[in-house]
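for the writeup, i need someone to sanity check this before i put it in the appendix. the sequnce is what the collaborator sent (i think, or maybe the updated version? ugh). structure was predicted straight from it, no edits. if anything looks off just tell me and ill rerun, i have time this weekend
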Amino acid sequence: MTTKLPARSENFSDWYNQIVLKAELADYAPVRGCMVVRPYGWALWENIQSALDQRFKETGHVNAAFPLFIPMSFLEKEKEHVEGFSPELAVVTVGGGEKLEEPLVVRPTSETVIGAMYSKWIKSYRDLPLLINQWGNVVRWEMRTKLFLRTLEFYWQEGHTAHATSEEAQEETLRMLDVYTDFAINEAAVPVVPGKKSESEKFAGAVSSYTIEAMMGDTRALQSATSHFLGQNFAKAFDIQYLDSNNQLQYVWTTSWGLSTRFIGAIIMTHGDDQGLVLPPRLAPLQVVIVPIYRNEDERAKVLPVVETVRESLVDFRIHVDDRQEVTPGFKFNDWEMRGVPLRIEIGPKDVAQGTFTLARRDVVGKRGKSQVGQNGLAIKVTEVLTDIQESLYQRALEFRNSNIHEPKNFIEFSEVVKRGWAFSWWCGDSECETRIKEDTRATTRCVPLDQPEREGRCIYCDKVAKERVYFARAY
């Protein structure tokens, strides 16, 4: 833990990898491309789960669990779906020492198996809407992997809903996009841009896909969550029909939406600095750490009772007392800074004598982040500081993002802009232009914002008439 991190500005990729390992969020598994999520990382994921799960239930969704194994024939029922996922599938052909009659796919996503179950459960308009979410793991055989951002196996939630009308399903799709946006901004302090994916970037099997895109600390984009309007593609593939109020047989309209442990990567790369993690208080596994400071047993005997009193007064927070005796206070400070704990309280003999404590904010480096406070009203003060840290992290990330979004006048400027930030440019909607932009600059369409100007422009690449402005960026 004492080894210094690579400078964020000099080697962002190595800096990221070292943070994940040194802060004990995750480690490399024995299987190539897989990760072990360590307790500290899992605690962060649990807080993400809790914040999202509350939002899902408030919008009428319930949780269920579906199988990890999916018959290959299920994936083959929806043409676009199987074509999109074929390169990433892990397939089981032997079970119990014998060759299986039909290969089983380790789920890359669950539209097919859930569609098969919905066809059994949905019979009448009274069964709709059906709003189910699943927390679990999936497997996608990625060639190039990176802890949290892209691994063969990862953890996520996937919502799957069925509706009586296209309008209801489209409304659900956008509602969940709003839920993800609200979570990212208000819980993770990550400013995101919600919008629609281009045809080439949409989910395999969807009619339309929506995304929240975040700018990382190196200005690259990260797709942080997606919501898909599936139309009747899966309903027809799996014969999900219902009798409407006129006793007519109709196909349902479905949606799916998900957010994964990739979002932990978003938090790291949005807020982290050269000292390590910087975690938003609302999601941090620990919000406050107390570090007792003493030189001998006599001082320890005076300090620890006060530490315990302070701990008891802050039981409403996620709090930890670091009373390790084998390491120095300075080591502890660096350790907890690496782990991104939002607020540190230092209590030594002088503090005990004066009735004051030192608060050290993680988001402000050095002495500027420290302040002296009294014991009276400490819980109120801690609440105020944590609230301010949460807001400050968001504002800092927002200012960084906005200062790195550019509006180039031509493709030459565009080519330079996407090396150091995002381009917000007119695009004609032609997939050929999109492909050539990617080939020439390595930048892709990240999303088409839902709010568009009431005028036309000229495509940044071909100069044809364009009706939409789009965010382009290099991405993870």
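The chain has a mean pLDDT of 96. Residues 378-403 form the longest helix (26 residues).
thx in advance!!
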